[in-house]
């Protein structure tokens, strides 16, 4: 994918829309319509600012992209959506220009369309089973469901059409929500709608969870997350920040002393993994969590108004191949690094990062080294990083994940010069609640064990999102939250 100026995309879309006027489209015609690329900032401009990279579709592009949908009777796309949005329904309304109706269809099952439309990996969820993509033998040519969803949500925001869910009469029953990420937001809204009193407890000084501390501004503007939190407050959800459950208050205290009839745990997966190689304690080595939290939540990029310290890097190595690795690499570039290199021990095909994010990183000048992984981090003067000793790999047989296992190439080690290393190889679940809550069952990775309805081993305690799934996606966390909310509402109704 190469960069195309937004004006060029707009002009082409206007031309195509004019050609479609008065034309009745058959399935063959819809399959021949050009997939609409997302307008974005010029790479040379955006790599020097923190503004959102993807600019959103023009209205003409939405019309074309929505008309590409075949409106299949079987609607396989719905089965790929963790919250079962009526995708053909909202796309049909968008094609007709009725964006308010389109949004209302989405909102039946999804509370965060502006967020999910930006950061969810649609290409491995709703777009993977899309009939258009299968007909064209390329998932990248499937209908761009997420981009249409984003447009509809942004249209509603720009035109004052956002609505706050209605709340039933008060029941006098209280529910505690621990954490304020996507799973917790979903539970809070669904439980509050039934008239129950909802208290949300957040450890940080700002709510939003990983959407605020982990995902950079250039991918998800923080005002969008703030708007969703504000909507919860308007519904009557009570939010308390700087409240660390497990330290400020324990789970048992919330139930036995504070009178909460149910508790939902949505604390996420915030414990970074390291490679356990020589040199990881050197100055200049960071987990992606710490680096991104400094940049995003603590606004280190806003040097005029923020006093948050950030390591001044010139040549950065990012270890990993997921979205977090892309976020860290692109953030480092915007923080002033002269060179940023991503090392991944498999090939580009196996990378879990979204194709769009990898393409954007390449456009911005980030260098990728595939089938490479560090053996050790090299020490320079005064305990600082001076580079990596790198090993070459080749792919062997598939492992438990279904991906081919990387196998070290003997005597292939060589050195690369770096002054900063960011480790982005995944996260484990936050261990605090596990350690302070006797009787709460967890698995060997520290994830809370919950059944298909979000129920944990403790009476009246539910859990969902990354604390159960491990590091997942916003929409998957929302799906887990929806199930748990239903269980909580069923419990309180008895």
Task: Please describe the structure with a list of short key phrases separated by commas or semicolons.
five-stranded parallel beta sheet; 16 strands; alpha/beta; 494 residues; single chain; globular
Describe what you observe in this structure.
The protein is an alpha/beta fold and 494 residues long. Helices cover 36% and strands 16% of the residues. The chain contains 20 helices and 16 strands. The strands form four sheets. The chain has a five-stranded parallel sheet with strand order 3-2-1-4-16. A hairpin with a 5-residue loop joins β11 and β12. α4 (59-67) packs across α6 and α4 packs antiparallel against α10 (145-158). The protein is globular, with a radius of gyration of 23 Å. The model has no long low-confidence stretch (mean pLDDT 95).
Q: Could you give a short account of the major beta sheet?
A: 5 strands, parallel
Give the low-pLDDT segments: none
What spatial form do the alpha-carbon principal axes imply?
globular
Spatial arrangement of strands, main beta sheet: 3-2-1-4-16
Short description:
The chain is an alpha/beta fold and 494 residues long. It has 20 helices and 16 strands.
